[in-house]
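@channel anyone free to eyeball this complex?
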Amino acid sequence: MTDQLLQRFIPEARDLIETSASGLLRLEKNPKDDAAVNEVFRAVHTLKGSSGLFDAVALTHLVHAAEDLLSSIRADELILDSTLIDMLLASLDQVGCWIDHLERDNCLPRDADGISNTMARELRSLAALPGSAQPTDAAPPLLSGQAADLDPDWLDGFSEAERREAFHRLTAGATVLAVRYVPDEACFYSGTDPLGLVLATPELLVAVAHPVAAFALPPDLDPYRCNLGFTLLTTADRTDVEMHMRYELERVEIRLVAPNDLISVAGLPTDAPVWEDFREEAGELLAAGDLVGLAARAATLNDLMGPDLAAVAALRWLATLLAAPTQDRAAIAALIEATVTGRFVAMPRQIAPVAQPSAAVPSATIGSAPRPHAVVDPHARAFARSILAAQLGCCEGIGFDAARLVAPGRVVGNLMASLGAGDVTDAIANALQSARDTGSAAPFLRLVDRLDAELAEGCGATAVPTSASAPVPAEPAPWHRDDRPAVSNHEEVRDDDARPLTHMLKVDQAKIDLLMNLIGELVVSKNSLPFLAKRAEEVHGSREMSREIKEQYAVINRLAQEMQSAIMHVRMLPVSDIFGRFPRLVRDMARKLTKEIDLVIEGEDTAADKIIIEALGDPILHIVRNSLDHGIEQPSDRLAAGKPATATLLLKAYQEADNVVIEIRDDGRGIDPAAIRAAAVAKGVLDQARADALSDQEAINLIYHPGFSTAAVVSDLSGRGVGMDVVRTTIEKLAGRVSVTSRVGEGTRTRLSLPLTMSVTHVMMVEAAGSLYGVPMDLIVETVRVPLEAIHTIKQAEAFILRDTLIPLVRMSTLMAQPARRRGDGSEEAVLVCRVDGRNVGLVIDDFREGMDILLKPLEGIVAGIKGFAGTALLGDGRVLLILDLKELL
Amino acid sequence: MKHILVVEDGLTMRLFYRDVLEAAGFQVDEAANGVEGLERAMLQPFDLAIVDVNMPKMDGFEMIRRMRQHPDLSSLPVATISTEAGESDMARAYAAGANYYLVKPAPPGDLALVARLLTGERL
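replying in thread with the prediction:
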């Protein structure tokens, strides 16, 4: 069960994190957006609730802290500012990492508990700051490594020998942590074993227990409440300790122990003059650096004096310090001082009261009874009683309302029936009737009280005395079934697996791909029917059969097309899948670059094929980065240029015929064609004369030239160009187009246009040089028949005029290196006008044939290297059709 | 077979309730928020509604309040379930007309037990 639940939880958690993050970004723009606050709160809340099902205490803990913070924001107790948002986003990121980890390893990373605790405390301290209502809740920063962090009274319970042992460990290079753990008073009911936990601490040096409050005397003493706190010293890693204490981390404080923290001078006071002398002598020895002499002097005195004196304790510590690998002269001096004063004062230190976790925490399950124990029956009875109490609860305090008594009445009846405690329906009906008659809930409440009292006595008999036997079922108690792991008939129960509400189906992509391939094959194989019809007529002479086949073909054709588009739609994803990550990205980058940017997103519902959507992410990212880096100016520059300080970056998607168009527009400084020309010439992309001949638009297009995109050019230019040819290559691989328009000082607009889907290609078959070829339909502008006399020869090249535009002609036969076939005078040439690289070209072919849908198979194996063909397709009659790659050919 | 309506916005939580309750021999219907829950509850009779407090569109309190105003639903046993272990939420739930208040995540055994007690299924 857990595995399957976890698999459900992971995508849900990711969605919730995403929702929260985008809500937070909206809130940053408009902190008054209540809807966004609620949305974020709810998402975090649900995340917390669901995560509680899994062994991910650290995650739940952190999410809980975030939820509390959001709750204060929701209640207007706290104003949301950038710091808070940063912190919340960081927490969400952390949770996201953990979710990834959960998915991979089924558990949280080892350091999760520590991170969670630190982050949660930070969140809570942020929440507590302005109100300062609970100063003790704002725990001190955890681990700064400063000795001052450790309150001296933490170590009070340790004996000198224990302290000395810890001191030796410390000076030998180990780290010693002091851990203070104050268990919940009610911890015995929640299955916690505080002492066991403490004693099992890794690398435990020593532990002491101390009462939290003074113990009460026997009549008042409640032995079931834990009144103990623990302090322990360990040489383990902080992470290991946190891991060990992970379920109790809220009640645990961990401090780094510095050597001086361990030194304590305690014992009987003395005012013998010998100590004054010692202080003087020792001070001189220390000043002279004679530590050996000092140690000898101290040892002598130590032998002479009684061990109970505080001064002698100081001497012992002095010996310990002097024997350590490195000496802390300040501490030694302080110890020498202590021989006289009887107090060790290493350095001025602020003694703050220890922040004790508040003792009274409501038990984990309010409204439910104490936790289950071994005996089942009392457990059920306890629940039953708590339900009865709840019925009292919901009838009291609302004034009398007869209608409101109906549900509690039914619940009480059900409850008794469930316990097998006899039929109390009549009693309830009577009570409700008299409640209505008297206009008071009292009769019903009295009944409930009575039933409760009977339950408390352990016998449920009321109306029917025969069922007075205790509600202990003869067979094993049925609710035991629920405790069985994983519910064996799980598969059958969940077989339909359809979530009844969302009406969403999560399907493995491979299944859709398979469907897609199958429909592709179907579309192609239906193409064989016209050939069959032709054969029926020509070979078998059956015109009627031929007609019937053609009719059937029309039906199959239509169905296949509908099916194809339906499956296509399954694969369609909204553009929001990629746009969604930009608000965060733009925000983070803008902050880093100290620019002010308003990101506007339009048309995020526009959908396109999964492959297209997935491939679009990187190109858009590239363009947006470029815009942010180079296009958009600093606020001061913008103001100087007479523009608003906040730049606008527009991400827009829309559908245009069979294409999805993505527009990325900024109002930055734009691209300077002159700079591009200069850079192109310097880079050797083209010579000065050709550069000068370029129009501004053509110059801007140069940024997509492969030779143009090196970092060096970019820095020379201080403009755009980072890997823009990569953008173009990616988009063109998807049969899309990129175009850029830009005006200096006004901004830049990049337009990506891609086909909605791509697996099935629409081609036109053409006859040329005696063979059949396919030309992708999206390249074809129109088909014309041109009279021979309308073809003009300009130098070696041919051209014709189509609606006042001169269109160059290219003969297929030439391209295919086949002998040209001349036509007689008065005849016409079939010309396919295609748009290649933004220009129209007329392709002279022998004849046009029908258009068809094909599954384009790339050239493979030894023919893979052949230029000029995009791939092959199988025709219905078994022939192979070569699809021309006009961009390469022309 | 007793029929339980689970109203909860968390997908994982719904699955959890369904698993636990179906294993305990109940038939389970789900709704993802208060509005859907109210709709479902009006369409057919249930023996128990388990309602999350914090939900989009309409929260659990409001849903229960409205259920109680509906003649057909005024007698339906309702258990609220929430992550808030706070007295105030419990009081609000009872004031709205809930019959019981459970704290998330309830141990599966407890959940099934409460469902049995509230629906009158023999233990």
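from a first look: Residues 575-755 of chain A form a domain with the Heat Shock Protein 90 fold (CATH 3.30.565.10).
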